Amino acid sequence: MPDLCDQLDQLSSIEGYSATARLLFRKVKKGYSERINQHATASYRIQVLEARIGALEPRKRRKVVLDPNTKFGDIENIRKAQIEAGDAEASEADPDASDQEGSQASYIVVAD
User: Is the pLDDT at 105 greater than 60, yes or no?
Assistant: First the structure.
C-alpha cells in the first residue's frame, strides 16, 4: 500500500486536476499516513504486551529427585531442582558452607 502515496503524488502533479482535487489527494495521503503510523504503533505495543504475558506465564515445575533412603527432600535437592528449572540462579559459593568454615575458625579454646 505504500504505492498509494506515490500514486496520489503522481495524480496531484498532473495539471489537469483542479485545486480542490489536489487538496483532496493531500488529505487522503495525510490520513493514510496517519493510519499507517497508528497501525505500526499498535502492532509494536501488541508485541511488547505479548512478551510481558509470556514472561508472566507459569513455568513447568520439575520434580525434586530424592535419595531413595530419605522420606523428604532436603534443601540441597530442592535448590538443585530450582536451578535446573531456571527458577533460581546458581551461586558459586554455598552460603551454608562459608558459615560452617567461619564458625570453626571463630572460637578460641581456653585451657584451664
Answer: no
